[in-house]
């Protein structure tokens, strides 16, 4: 969903075998376009648990991240 004055960008699709996980989406205003984060993911109990982390730059404005999961067959 797009809102006036904002940009939504999907950053990462993680492929595991024949299945893919959309891992990260972010929304930002045109004044501060997001840079692609370095994301680390691991599946400790796939498909029940997939954990991802990334550093938040200290000088960045507050950013809202939404992680989504989708299986492809």
Distance between the termini: 25 Å
Average per-residue pLDDT, rounded, comes to 62
Which percent band covers the strand fraction?
over 45%
Low-confidence stretches: 1-16
Q: Strand order, biggest sheet?
A: 1-2-5
From the helix content, strand content and strand pairing, which structural class follows? mainly beta
Subunit organisation of the chains:
single chain
**Number of beta strands:** 5
**Structural Rg:** 14 Å
Largest sheet: 3 strands, antiparallel
Specify the helix fraction band. Answer: under 10%
Helix segment tally = 0
Shape: elongated
> In total, how many domains does the architecture comprise?
1
String of helices and strands:
EEEEE
Description:
- This protein is mainly β.
- It has one domain.
- Helices cover 0% and strands 47% of the residues.
- A three-stranded antiparallel sheet has the order 1-2-5, with no helix packed on it. Strands 3-4 form a two-stranded antiparallel ribbon.
- The protein starts with 6 loop residues before the first strand and ends in a 7-residue tail after the last strand.
Features:
single chain; 73 residues; mainly beta; 3-stranded antiparallel sheet; two-stranded antiparallel sheet; Epstein-Barr virus induced gene 3; FN3_sf; signal
């Amino acid at each position: 969903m797009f809102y006036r004055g904002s940009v939504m960008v999907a950053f990462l699709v993680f492929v595991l075998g024949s299945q893919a996980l959309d891992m990260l989406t972010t929304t930002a205003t045109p004044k501060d376009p997001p840079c692609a984060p370095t994301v680390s993911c691991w599946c400790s109990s796939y498909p029940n648990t997939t954990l991802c982390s990334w550093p938040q730059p200290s000088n960045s404005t507050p950013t809202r991240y939404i992680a989504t999961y989708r299986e492809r067959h």
